[in-house]
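Quick one from the shared queue. A colleague (R.T.) flagged Zinc finger CHCC-type domain-containing protein as missing a structural entry in our internal table.

Convert sequence to structure tokens.
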Amino acid sequence: MPPRHADAIIPPPEAIVVPTKRVACDGGGGALGHPLVYMDMGGDDFVECAYCDRRFVLDAHPKPENEYLSPAARPPEAH
Ligand SMILES: [Zn+2]
């Protein structure tokens, strides 16, 4: 049975990797929840939520959305 950490209830601010500079945050619900806000990183590659202190970090290698939206990118008879 793992020991309980009664003093570790408050987690450190999270760093969330996102593929775009424009992010939305609602605190994740629960005790840290807050109204949904939209943030833009502007010239930076990260932004911190003023409500819950979570940090959103821009993915260094964002995937182009076209890959997700193009199922025909792979020929059905590739082999
Ligand atoms: Zn937030």
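The chain has a mean pLDDT of 78.
Residues 15-59 form a domain with the HSP40/DNAj peptide-binding domain fold (CATH 2.60.260.40).
Added to the table.
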